[in-house]
Amino acid sequence: MKIQLWIARREPYWQRLDFLLKKIEKKGIKSLKASEIQELSALYRSVSADLARAKTFKVGTILIEDLHKLTTRAYSQVYQAPRGQDWGGIWRFYRWGFPETVQKTWPYTTIATLTFIVGGLIAWWYAWSDPNFIAMVAPPELITKVRDDQELWMGSIIGVEPLASSGIMINNMSVSFRVVSGGIVAGILTLFILFYNGLLIGTIATLVGQNNLAYPFWAFVFPHGSLELPAIFLSGGAGLLIARALLFPGQYKRADALKIYGLQAAQLVFGIVPLLFIAGIIEGFFSPNPSVPDPLKYVAGLLLFILLIQYCSLSKGTSSSSITPQ
């Protein structure tokens, strides 16, 4: 390792971390924007790695001591916040941090969304042109219920709403976490799960459409789907962020890229958990409820989707971060 070149390349990050720490030490953590708090965490991990390298290559006692002091100060702010600030940090994250992360990572979420849509369109095309295609994708009992009985399957939820709702939450979170973890294998599994789920939804939508059940079907899907599907797309974006760090680390070393992009992926995951929780309650108690008129379900789904878009569009201002990738 060329010591002087390495120091010159890494020194701006050390200075930036020192600047943020001085700001906190003088004015408190509330003086930082949500994006600066995220940057602080990423810088702490990056500089900690620099300290380990400095010790390994024995770059000089003074530099090692300075880096040690810097990481110690950062550790006290990142992991030893005063009591009472934890809830404030959670509030700031969901108020500003999560929307900012969604906005910064929108290209990855867009790719995930398009993958799902492509799967749905392919299923729609083949299901209308080839009757045998539906039997290859949709479960046989579901096909029998729709084609033979001319009924939807959501009635099975009625009477067991609490059990069904909890099961739905667990299933949705399981799918989302698999989508995220798929990023470890270069994003291939992430894209496959999204494509397959799009294929499944497109096939079922065509099946109910062919049997004149599209209107009640989409009335069931709209209320919870307005939150559930975006949450899955965001988890797909998280998986693709991990894949990006592995395949295209850019100016960072792969380990540093994993820390930086992995932090953004983790923030997306933390953000979608409440969405999946709310969607599970809606799917268990509201969506299949026969006493709720279908038009009201459509309106509820539309309003929830609009509120979600508005929430994800919130902004507290931009950061001058030099480490957080755009």
TrEMBL record:
Keyword Transmembrane attached: yes
Keyword Protein biosynthesis in annotation: no
Record InterPro entries: SpoIIM-like
Keywords recorded for this protein, A-Z: Membrane, Transmembrane, Transmembrane helix
Segments passing through the bilayer: 105-127, 152-171, 183-209, 229-247, 268-286, 298-314
One Pfam family per UniProt: SpoIIM
PANTHER family: SLR1478 PROTEIN
Protein's name in the database: Stage II sporulation protein M
Organism: Crocosphaera watsonii WH 0003
